[in-house]
């Protein structure tokens, strides 16, 4: 190719350069992106990249008080596991507890103090009308107002409404309110077992929860208490359940569940009995009657029992409860037959107009079977001398429905000037009938210490956002204990993410601004905590120095002293025995217009709604229905067929006090006249994952109370109205039938094996 | 009538030439990028010289990269570690003053990674150090470098060959190195 | 031999075929550009979106992880099946009616194989790593997993593609030469290259004949094996309703079946739009019709066997899968398939039907619709009903999937339209073999130089 | 020996499920269905440990959820005799795993610990393994998932975040096994002690229904579990020889 003319030459040059360019770009495009390697300026002593550090702390997701160990790396919390040394959960942890990480790292956390810009009654709530302020501003505002009221002798118009807290935070609240000269300190939890405390008060004469020794029991009779799912201390009960069933040689624990709608405890039980809702007490007394009449019980006060139980012959109870007489007899014989046996009650059964009676009847069963003070029965927790005063009876400050109504009433009458909210969310977890939201609008200054923009916080004038439990110091004394005194300390596992402060620090800061420093001298919560534990250390058998005790304590995360309480000789007061009896349950709404009984239940993942802003919990399929994201109403297939409903049909659930619209789910293990709705969804605020999803059954509950003023939340009648619409339930489950494929195989209990070579991890004796 | 292929080739020649040159250009461009803009020795915020520290003064690697023997990542020394010495040593040098600026503002130094493995690779420095693998095996003769540069792109092949030579236990199992 | 072919002489053949390459009406361009446009719009755009978003763009889910992409893949492989295979068989049996149609049939094989290959890229989650499925030495010291039926696929299809290309190219060399001598400009240059200096000497003819026959023998078993292997992708799993020994023959028969139907469609179109009326005649349709009938009967039989096996197994899983296929959400589709592929073809018994063009066209299209349905059902129904009832699923194709299926059709059409203008879609020299030679008037099959 | 004998020996050796004798360990999980309460703690534990994505409601509704371990529920009878049983279902780590044979690029294979492993960065996403798996425990990333700030700070650095187009599944928390081996090496031990490793699900199980260990160590808890008369394996008839052992549910009035 000798002669190239100009055009050819240009062509070639062009081709060459284009080629070169594209080649260069190609090479550039497949290059590694630049990454940085940023060291700490001054590394903390327990921080080294790539190396895991575990911190022991206390779970703050429910009131069970499990101990947790948090796995952290590069200063970030990676995983929450149970603290193996903690007697309550012994290294295990429920789903909600593990999701605590998403409370810490939740994208919807309140990051800084804020003040409301528009008046509270303006329609628009939420982010739109908040302005950020400094902590100084926020605290000063509150302090000034409190000071005015204190000087003006209106101290009593100051109210502190908190979630159920124990330990030194509780006592700090006490101290603070006392110093302000007010007595308005209330704890509010929807799921607090008020009626159980009341029943124990009446029967045992003390307002504490005994320790239910599920672990060693041979026969557990549960009246409506979902002890594996949501009742008091699920993880501890699960441990016991596993041990009682397969952990010990010779026998396999039997479990009976009595409830109108099968909970996971019902699914795990050997026998699931659907007594008519509200008649669990009758059943208990029917069993008691059989125990006494058939001569199982040989106590001195046998005559009194026979007398007071005479109206509860199995025959009559059978027709009251819908449970066949021979079943009742069989239960009674089994209950007496395999002792130590244990009867527990709560949940739905405890939340009827006759809830307290029912639970007293359950206690009576335990007494008749002689389970009190026995291993495998129920043991009384010691009243530990070492506990800080406020922590002795965490129940004392718990507000039942009547107290909350009173509070709302006072607010409406202008008796409340300042309301400090900490952690609790009554606007969501009180029935609409309580008109609590309206009451809030009547309060001049509402201050929320919440970490999230929940429904109640959205009503506040001032937000002083608090740390999550993973960022703050604190301690806890589980109630009920595990049979001996135990306490645990929680510590920050990561440095605070945002411009928030620990609740205790906020309270102390306010105290200082109010010149309460002489009575509350501690600079921050940690010091107060140490001071408190110094006291415990002093009273306890302290050998080594307090500092070493403290370090050991914080390392272990838990502390206990083996002081048991001997209470075998318990005999109930004659009066109590004479008054044993159950009144028929009252349901609000007449059975004609409202044919169904609403059975709300605490969801496994979302608990009473606090879990709804955690994506993991939203994506955790409900164990029994496999539904995720959103709520549903459970119908017995027969009922559904009668009404012509199929899965996914949107129905309006109407009670005399309101209505919600939810899709239908056909649930096989449910009494035909009962419908069940999980609690937890239906938030109107509370972050992107919870907002406007599902509906909240609490809202439509009737303000039905039992004799002691507790909300009887399973005593509402409702009716179903078809909307004609249909939605697809989001769920994982396909067809829940085995079609003879032997996926889950069963064997008869006769083939039960001896546990020596079972290889099960032995449960620690506590 | 002819069936000769020659006239056709004549016609196609210019087009062929253009294509050929284009291809050559492509290859050249690709090579040039790698050869002249390798990005294997990036400009660091401070011209830290391993030659001076590790080479001339023979400070052992582990003195600064203290993590290497007990953690997955070797880690870079925290700023205060540098300052500990440079409070007194060579305080007048401009680069040291740069360092001191960081220290006074309590800012970390944004070093640029030279040797960077993908996120799906699990490479514990700990195991390799305790197995007595010299740092230079992968990082090259750092003590001679005024500016650290990546000797070779760290590729799976190198890991494998080394694991083979030293017959590492399960050294060829995928899950030994991948996560 | 039908009457009109008597009038043909060599010159006509050359003229007609060359005209089919040179003379192009506006209709052709309309068709070509439409096909091209549809390919870009319905295939490439959605595909790029999917590359960006992930397979989630399609309707697949857990446990239905396979969807229409795979059924399209099988469909195209199937469609590819008849062309070359048929051509080979007929070449060996030396049946004269093959000669007018085999070229386009082989082209069909080629292009549907290519489209099938593209479908693989659409199907996998990370196509940019697809080369890992090829055995080549690399610094990772990783080889593909030779136990995997999917890898067998890669091999088999690659081989089949190569074979088909060689076969069609070798067969057309003399025609390239013939066209070369009758064209000018860029075409001439193109055909000069393609014909590789073919002169038409006896030696060349002899060698061509040998090689051609040799390849034909080679390709027949290959073709059969390819689709058996494709079937193993399913049959080697333990998914109920897929784990069946009948699958290999099932797929092969199905493939040839749909392929033959495809040929009928193509024949009709060529005949109509390239006016090859004199070459593609009722004879072809008649014979193809007979073939279709036989295949449809075989296909039906295998379907019955499939049902019987499931029923006879008595296994809950098998039965459930079967009931779901027959009466489940996609039940209607199943019966549609039976109608199109088992019942309708029975019409082919009548000669009048076989020799009438439009009905044959309609039937052939119906059959291919039915065959696509079959592939879809295999993938969609069996995966939704596996062993664990609580994990049963449900699958509906997404818009992206449908559009990509459409696009793949358009892609095939585009390729074929290009083919008819570049390569003589009717074998000049072989057609001539059926004609009376100028020298002696008795039509003989003796080899003749083409000029 | 002659050619054919060698062939036969090789065959005999390799047709044994994953030629178990060559393993260092044979990791096994035993799950007691009699005390599984279905509470879902294991599901969350797995999600936290293994960086499982939050797919969101839409994707969930389209059946795109990713749960390495899931609770399956099976009903028997109708009200009032309805019975409900749970079974946790995760990768069974079959010794004769169908998924391993089908992967064209060997992205999933049996390693020397008797684990059925998945190499994410090798996966090309043919999804054939998911089809071949009779337990349907393989989950595909239909798109690249992201974590809302600052949720991403929780991600476990020991586990890759999988990108779109990659198959994933339960690994028996292989990263924990790796760390345990690491510790063992530091202590100069050859093997991991029984109970030293616990996958996240086993660790969290409140009823202690799950046990994990090496069945080659005859003294290990899990080895004892295998000898339990109640032990069985799901879909055993398929001869995949799973490494997950279930203990039968005890039911007084079972047939």
Account of the 3D structure:
The complex is a heterotetramer of chains A (766), B (179), C (451) and D (255). Chain A has 4 domains: 53-104, ADC-like domains (N-terminal domain of TfIIb), CATH 2.20.25.90; 114-191 and 396-521, Rossmann fold (3-Layer(aba) Sandwich), CATH 3.40.50; 210-379, Dimethylsulfoxide Reductase, domain 2 (3-Layer(aba) Sandwich); 596-726, Barwin-like endoglucanases (Beta Barrel). In chain A, 30% of the residues lie in helices and 17% in strands. In chain A, a hairpin with a 2-residue loop joins strand 3 and strand 4. In chain A, helix 5 packs parallel to helix 18, helix 6 packs across helix 13 and helix 9 packs parallel to helix 13 (355-368). Residues 750-756 of chain A have low confidence and may be disordered. Chain B is an all-alpha fold. Chain B has a domain at 50-76 and 111-177. Chain B contains 9 helices and 1 strand. Chain B has helices at 6-36, 50-56, 61-64, 79-86, 94-104, 125-130, 135-139, 156-165, 174-177, and one strand at residues 111-112. The longest helix of chain B has 31 residues, at 6-36. Chain B is flat, with a radius of gyration of 25 Å. The N and C termini of chain B lie far apart (69 Å). In chain B, 16% of the residues are buried. The model of chain B has no long low-confidence stretch (mean pLDDT 88). Chain C has one domain (3-133, 144-434): Up-down Bundle (Formate dehydrogenase/DMSO reductase fold). Helices cover 71% and strands 0% of the residues of chain C. Chain C contains 16 helices and no strands. Chain C has helices spanning 3-7, 10-22, 26-53, 68-93, 102-123, 149-180, 185-195, 202-235, 247-273, 282-313, 316-327, 331-343, 351-355, 357-384, 399-422, 428-434. The model of chain C is unreliable at 1-5 and 440-451 (pLDDT under 50). Chain D has 255 residues and is an alpha+beta fold. Chain D has a single domain, classed as Alpha-Beta Plaits. Chain D is built from 8 helices and 11 strands. Chain D has a 4-stranded mixed β-sheet. Chain D has a two-stranded antiparallel sheet with strand order 2-3. In chain D, a hairpin with a 6-residue loop joins strand 2 and strand 3 (83-89). The chains are: A alpha/beta (766), B mainly alpha (179), C mainly alpha (451), D alpha+beta (255). The C-D interface holds C 53-56, 59-66, 123-127, 129-130, 132-133, 142-145, 147-151, 154, 233, 236-239, 383, 386-391, 393-394 and D 59, 62-65, 70, 72-74, 89, 98, 101-106, 122-128, 130-132, 134-136, 139-144, 164-167, 235, 238, 240. Strand 27 (746-747) of chain A pairs parallel with strand 11 (249-250) of chain D, so a sheet runs across the interface.
């Amino acid at each position: 190719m000798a002669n190239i003319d100009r055009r050819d030459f240009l062509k070639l040059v062009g081709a060459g350069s284009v080629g070169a360019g594209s080649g260069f770009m190609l090479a550039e495009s497949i290059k590694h992106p630049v990454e940085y390697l940023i060291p700490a300026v001054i590394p903390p002593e327990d921080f080294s990249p790539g190396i895991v550090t575990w911190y022991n702390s206390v779970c703050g997701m429910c009131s069970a008080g499990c101990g947790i160990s948090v796995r952290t790396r590069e200063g970030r919390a990676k995983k929450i596991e149970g603290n193996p040394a903690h007697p309550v959960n012994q290294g295990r942890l429920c789903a909600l507890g593990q999701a605590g990480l998403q409370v810490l790292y939740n994208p919807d956390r309140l990051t800084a103090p804020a003040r409301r810009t528009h008046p509270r009654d303006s329609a628009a709530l939420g982010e739109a009308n908040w302005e950020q302020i400094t902590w100084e501003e926020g605290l000063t505002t509150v302090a000034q107002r409190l000071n005015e009221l204190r000087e003006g002798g209106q101290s009593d118009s100051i109210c502190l409404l908190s979630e159920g807290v124990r330990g030194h935070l509780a006592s700090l609240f006490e101290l603070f309110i006392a110093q302000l000269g007010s007595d308005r300190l209330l704890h509010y939890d929807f799921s607090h077992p008020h009626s159980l405390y009341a029943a124990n008060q009446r029967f045992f004469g003390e307002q504490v929860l005994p320790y239910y020794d599920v672990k060693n029991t041979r026969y557990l009779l549960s009246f409506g208490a979902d002890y594996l799912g949501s009742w008091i201390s699920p993880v501890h009960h699960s441990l016991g359940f596993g041990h009682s069933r397969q952990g010990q040689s010779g026998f396999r624990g039997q479990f009976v569940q009595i409830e109108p709608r099968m909970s996971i405890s019902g699914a795990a039980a050997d026998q699931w009995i659907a007594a008519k809702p509200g008649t669990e007490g009758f059943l208990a007394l029917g069993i008691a009657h059989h125990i006494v009449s058939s001569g199982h019980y040989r106590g001195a006060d046998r005559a009194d029992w026979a007398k007071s139980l005479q109206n509860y012959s199995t025959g009559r109870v059978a027709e009251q409860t819908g449970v066949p007489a021979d079943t009742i007899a069989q239960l009674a014989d089994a209950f007496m037959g395999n002792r130590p046996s244990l009867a527990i009650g709560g949940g739905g059964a405890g939340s009827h107009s006759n809830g307290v009676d029912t639970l007293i009847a359950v206690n009576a069963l335990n007494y008749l079977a002689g389970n009190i003070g026995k291993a495998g029965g129920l043991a009384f927790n010691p009243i530990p001398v070492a506990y800080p005063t406020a922590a002795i009876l965490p129940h004392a400050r718990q507000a039942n429905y009547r107290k909350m109504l009173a509070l709302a009433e006072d607010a409406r009458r202008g008796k409340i000037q300042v309301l400090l909210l900490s952690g609790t969310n009554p606007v969501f977890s009180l029935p609409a009938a309580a008109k609590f939201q309206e009451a809030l609008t009547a309060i001049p200054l509402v201050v929320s210490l919440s970490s999230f923009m929940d429904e109640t916080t959205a009503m506040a004038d001032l937000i002083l956002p608090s740390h999550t439990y993973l960022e703050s110091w604190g301690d806890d004394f589980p109630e009920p204990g595990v049979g001996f005194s135990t306490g645990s300390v929680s510590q920050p596992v990561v440095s605070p993410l945002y411009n928030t402060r620990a609740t205790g620090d906020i309270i102390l800061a306010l105290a200082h601004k109010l010149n309460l420093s002489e009575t509350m001298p501690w600079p921050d919560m940690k010091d107060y905590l140490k001071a408190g534990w110094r006291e415990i250390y002093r009273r306890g058998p302290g050998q080594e120095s307090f500092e070493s005790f403290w370090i050991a304590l914080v390392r272990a995360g838990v502390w206990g002293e083996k002081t048991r309480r001997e209470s075998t000789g318990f005999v109930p007061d004659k009066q109590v025995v004479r008054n044993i009896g159950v009144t028929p349950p009252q349901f609000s709404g007449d059975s004609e217009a409202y044919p169904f009984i609403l059975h709300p239940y605490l969801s496994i993942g979302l608990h009473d709604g606090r879990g709804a802003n955690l994506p993991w919990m939203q994506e955790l399929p409900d164990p029994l229905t496999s539904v995720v994201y959103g709520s549903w109403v459970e119908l017995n297939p027969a009922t559904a067929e009668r009404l012509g409903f199929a899965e996914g049909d949107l129905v309006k659930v109407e009670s005399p006090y309101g209505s919600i619209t939810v899709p239908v789910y056909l649930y096989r293990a449910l009494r035909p006249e009962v419908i069940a709705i999980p609690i937890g969804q239906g938030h109107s605020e509370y972050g992107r994952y919870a907002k406007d999803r599902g509906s909240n059954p609490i809202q439509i509950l009737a303000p039905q109370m039992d004799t002691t003023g507790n909300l009887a939340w399973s005593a509402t009648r409702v009716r179903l109205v078809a909307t004609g619409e249909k939605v697809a339930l989001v769920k994982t489950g396909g067809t829940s039938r085995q079609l003879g494929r032997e996926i889950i195989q069963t064997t008869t209990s006769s083939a039960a094996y001896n546990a020596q070579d079972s290889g099960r991890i032995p449960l620690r004796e506590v | 009538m002819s069936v000769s292929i020659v006239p056709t080739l004549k016609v196609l020649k210019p087009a062929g030439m253009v294509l050929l040159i284009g291809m050559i250009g492509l290859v050249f461009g690709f090579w040039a990028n790698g050869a002249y803009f390798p990005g294997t020795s990036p400009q660091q915020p401070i011209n830290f010289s391993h030659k001076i520290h590790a080479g001339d003064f023979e400070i052992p690697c582990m003195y600064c990269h203290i993590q290497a023997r007990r953690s997955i990542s070797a880690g870079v020394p925290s700023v205060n570690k540098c300052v500990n010495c440079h409070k007194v040593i060579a305080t007048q040098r401009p680069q040291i003053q740069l360092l001191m600026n960081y220290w006074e503002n309590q800012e970390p130094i944004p070093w640029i990674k030279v040797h960077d493995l993908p996120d799906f690779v699990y490479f514990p420095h700990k195991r390799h150090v305790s197995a007595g693998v010299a740092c230079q095996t992968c990082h090259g003769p750092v003590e001679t470098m005024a500016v650290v540069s990546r000797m070779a792109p760290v590729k799976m092949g190198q890991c494998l060959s080394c694991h083979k030579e030293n017959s590492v236990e399960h050294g060829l199992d995928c899950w030994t190195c991948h996560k | 031999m039908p009457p009109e072919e008597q009038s043909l002489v060599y010159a006509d053949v050359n003229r007609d075929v060359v005209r089919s390459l040179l003379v192009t009406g506006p209709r052709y361009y309309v068709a070509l550009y439409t096909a091209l446009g549809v390919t870009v719009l319905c295939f490439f755009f959605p595909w790029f979106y999917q590359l960006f978003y992930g397979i989630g763009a399609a309707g697949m889910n857990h446990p239905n992880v396979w969807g229409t992409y795979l059924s399209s893949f099988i469909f195209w492989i199937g469609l590819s099946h008849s062309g070359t295979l048929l051509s080979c068989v007929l070449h060996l049996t030396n049946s004269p009616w093959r000669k007018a149609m085999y070229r386009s049939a082989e082209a069909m094989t080629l292009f549907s194989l290519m489209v099938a290959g593209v479908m693989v890229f659409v199907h996998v989650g990370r196509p940019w790593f697809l080369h890992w499925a090829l055995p080549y030495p690399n610094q990772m010291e990783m080889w593909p997993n030779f136990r995997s039926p999917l890898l067998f696929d890669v091999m088999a299809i690659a081989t089949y593609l190569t074979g088909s290309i060689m076969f069609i190219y070798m067969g057309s060399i003399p025609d390239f030469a013939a066209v070369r001598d009758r064209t000018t400009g860029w075409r001439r240059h193109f055909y000069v290259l393609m014909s590789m200096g073919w002169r038409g000497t006896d030696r060349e003819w002899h060698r061509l004949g040998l090689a051609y026959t040799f390849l034909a023998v080679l390709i027949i078993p290959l073709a059969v094996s390819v689709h058996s292997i494709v079937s193993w992708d399913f049959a080697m799993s333990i998914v109920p309703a897929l784990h069946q020994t009948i699958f290999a023959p099932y797929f092969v028969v199905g493939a040839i079946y749909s392929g033959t139907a495809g040929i009928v469609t193509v024949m009709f179109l060529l005949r109509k739009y390239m006016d090859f009326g004199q070459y593609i005649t009722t004879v072809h349709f008649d014979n193809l019709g007979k073939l279709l009938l036989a295949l449809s009967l075989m296909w039906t039989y295998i379907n019955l066997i499939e049902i019987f096996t499931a029923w006879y197994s008595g296994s809950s899983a098998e039965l459930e899968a079967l009931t779901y296929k027959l009466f489940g959400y996609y039940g209607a589709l199943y019966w549609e398939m039976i109608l199109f592929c088992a019942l309708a073809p029975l019409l082919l018994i009548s000669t009048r039907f076989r020799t009438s063009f439009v009905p044959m066209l309609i039937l052939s299209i119906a059959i291919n619709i039915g065959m696509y349905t079959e592939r879809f059902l295999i993938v969609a129904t069996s995966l939704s009903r596996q062993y664990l009832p609580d994990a049963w699923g449900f699958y509906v194709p997404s818009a992206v999937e449908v559009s990509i299926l459409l696009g793949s059709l358009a892609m095939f059409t585009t390729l074929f339209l290009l083919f008819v203008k570049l390569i003589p879609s009717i074998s000049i020299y072989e057609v001539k073999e059926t004609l009376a030679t100028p020298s002696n008037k008795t039509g003989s099959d003796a080899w003749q130089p083409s000029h | 020996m002659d050619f054919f004998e060698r062939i036969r020996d090789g065959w005999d050796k390799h047709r044994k499920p994953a030629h178990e004798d060559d393993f260092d360990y044979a990791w096994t999980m035993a799950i007691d269905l009699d005390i599984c309460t279905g509470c879902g703690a294991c599901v969350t534990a797995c999600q936290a440990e293994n960086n499982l994505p939050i797919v969101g409601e839409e994707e969930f509704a389209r059946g795109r959820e990713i749960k390495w371990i899931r609770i399956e529920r099976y009903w028997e009878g109708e009200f009032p005799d309805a019975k409900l049983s749970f079974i946790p279902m995760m990768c069974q780590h079959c010794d004769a795993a169908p998924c391993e044979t089908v992967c064209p690029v060997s992205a999933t294979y049996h390693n020397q610990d008797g684990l059925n492993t998945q190499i994410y960065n090798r996966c090309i996403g043919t999804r054939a393994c998911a089809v071949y798996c009779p337990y349907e425990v393989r989950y595909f990333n239909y798109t690249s998932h992201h974590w809302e700030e600052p949720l991403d700070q929780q991600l476990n650095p020991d586990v890759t975040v999988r990108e779109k187009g990659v198959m994933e599944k339960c690994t028996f928390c292989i990263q924990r096994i790796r760390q345990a081996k690491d510790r063992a090496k530091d202590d100069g031990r050859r093997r991991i002690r029984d109970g030293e490793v616990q996958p996240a699900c086993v660790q969290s199980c409140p009823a202690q229904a799950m046990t994990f260990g090496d069945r080659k160590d005859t003294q290990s808890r899990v080895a004892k579990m295998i000898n339990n008369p109640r032990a069985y394996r799901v879909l055993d008839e398929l001869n995949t020889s799973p490494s997950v052992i279930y203990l039968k549910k005890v039911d007084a009035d079972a047939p």
